[in-house]
Hints:
Radius of gyration: 16 Å
Number of domains: 1
Oligomer: single chain
Number of strands: 2
Helix content: 40-55%
Shape: globular
Order of helices and strands: EHEHHHH
Strand order of the largest sheet: 1-2
Distance between the termini: 15 Å
Strand content: 5-15%
Amino acid sequence: xxxxxxxxxxxxxxxxxxxxxxxxxxxxxxxxxxxxxxxxxxxxxxxxxxxxxxxxxxxxxxxxxxxxxxxxxxxxxxxxxxxxxxxxxxxxxxxxxxxxxxxxxxxxxxxxxxxxxxxx
Length: 120
């Protein structure tokens, strides 16, 4: 992956990766990270996910997500995986009523979006 930082740290800086892997890491942090904000640094379990994806090795991503959701029940932030949970609900409950104002609108990536990501 061409990581130039210290590999024994508990967090990994996205800028220390080679260009092809920065976008993959960026996507995994946004989709499966349990924190709000701080998208330039990946914690160790996120790097394990990315490494297993690259090496085509098995990794129990749902166990990691479940563990962090259980941890969040004790605090004030219960639901930290809204996209993941919404995907599960949509799959299991086909006619679930949704409020349009509650949905996060996601748009397809454009050339402008890719240009903004180029700084990474």
